[in-house]
């Protein structure tokens, strides 16, 4: 990679490209709606050594998906300061290929977010200033993931849920512009910068993925110039500690991912692309796709540690009238 074409993280390449300013802009009375979809398949290799007979191997694939429709209504707008936004979760639909806990028909705790709202404040650079309301809502959904107190003979038991997917879509909506190191200086085509995003998984584990953003090109468009931001993902050495966790205290996890423990994340590779409307100051769409590899230990050791491969896709698109 030539440094004269693409600079080091946060640096501007030595070109004559004009500077572009990526801002989060809102107008009172104009509500923005987005559709978020997360899909993943977790392939569990219970027998990496190949010694288990084919007929004895357990079902090795779990698939999960979540679809969210969010509405963002500006309440107070200050183009030079902080804007207050009311976010409403208009609908949430979760689905699994099978019940990982053995309890068919259970409602995913993420679906309890449907119809609920929270307020947040954001500055013109897209940086979230006050996330206390969404943090509280995520913890409220986390409480709904546990079995009722009348069913706790073995202690607190958490059912499978996709709350982490909600966090991954809402907490990081403006991350591509909020992580620009010097927003007042703008960015140019070819410039790159770095940040970290969360990894939603069916396991209870905080893990991050490093993202390297690159401004790839600017496309003309009647509704505003579109910045195409390329993304490259890799496994973070250590996760950020500022994004919310839905659960507190000690508990057991029901189903397949409670039988496994001692997860070790080995690698993550993937790419993405985001389209950002420069003139309107809003994200239009993105698609993230990556593969995470991990290993785990079984509660009762029966052989080599199982190997896990998680194929994940996260998409966002603006809903237009």
Q: What is the CATH class?
A: Mainly Beta
- Kindly report the CATH topology: Lipovitellin-phosvitin complex, beta-sheet shell regions
Tell how many strands the DSSP assignment holds: 13
String of helices and strands: EEEEEHEHHEEEEHEEE
The CATH architecture name reads Roll
Q: How many individual domains?
A: 1
The proportion of residues in beta strands is: 35-45%
Percent helix:
under 10%
Distance between the termini: 42 Å
Helix/strand-derived category reads: mainly beta
Number of helices: 4
Largest sheet: 11 strands, antiparallel
The coarse silhouette is globular
Uncertain regions spanning at least 5 consecutive residues? 1-9
| Radius of gyration (Å) | 21 Å
Characterization of the model:
The protein has 321 residues and is mainly beta. It has a single domain, classed as Roll (Lipovitellin-phosvitin complex, beta-sheet shell regions). Helix content is 9%, strand content 41%. It is built from 4 helices and 13 strands. The strands form 2 sheets. It has an 11-stranded antiparallel beta sheet with strand order 5-4-3-2-1-13-12-11-9-8-7. A two-stranded parallel sheet has the order 6-10. It is globular, with a radius of gyration of 21 Å. The two termini are 42 Å apart. The N terminus is likely disordered.
């Amino acid at each position: 990679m030539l440094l004269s074409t693409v600079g080091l993280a946060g640096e501007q390449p030595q070109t004559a490209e004009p500077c572009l300013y990526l801002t989060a802009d809102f107008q009172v009375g104009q509500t923005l709606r987005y559709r978020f979809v997360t899909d993943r398949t977790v392939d569990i290799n219970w027998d990496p050594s190949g010694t288990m007979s084919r007929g004895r191997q357990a079902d090795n694939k779990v698939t999960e998906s979540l679809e969210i429709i969010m509405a963002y209504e500006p309440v107070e707008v200050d183009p030079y300061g902080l804007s207050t936004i009311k976010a409403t979760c208009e609908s949430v639909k979760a689905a699994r290929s099978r019940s990982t806990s053995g309890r068919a028909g259970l409602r995913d705790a993420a679906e309890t977010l449907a119809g609920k709202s929270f307020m947040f404040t954001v500055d013109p650079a897209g940086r979230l200033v006050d996330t206390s309301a969404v943090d509280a809502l995520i913890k409220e959904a986390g409480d709904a993931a546990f079995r009722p107190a009348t069913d706790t003979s073995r202690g607190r038991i958490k059912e499978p849920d996709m709350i982490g997917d909600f966090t991954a879509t809402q907490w990081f909506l403006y991350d591509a512009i909020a992580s620009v190191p010097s927003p007042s200086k703008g960015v140019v085509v070819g410039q790159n910068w770095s940040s970290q995003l969360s990894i939603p998984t069916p396991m209870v584990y905080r893990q991050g993925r490093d993202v390297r953003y690159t401004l790839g090109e600017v496309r003309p468009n009647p509704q505003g110039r579109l910045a195409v931001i390329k993304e490259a993902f890799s496994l973070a050495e250590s996760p950020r500690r500022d994004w919310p966790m839905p659960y507190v205290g000690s508990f057991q996890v029901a189903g397949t991912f409670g039988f496994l423990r001692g997860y070790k994340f080995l690698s993550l590779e993937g790419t993405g692309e985001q389209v950002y409307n420069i003139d309107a100051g809003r994200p239009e769409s993105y698609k993230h796709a990556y593969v995470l590899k991990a290993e785990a230990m079984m509660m009762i050791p029966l052989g080599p540690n199982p190997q896990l491969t998680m194929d994940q896709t996260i998409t966002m698109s603006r809903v237009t009238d």
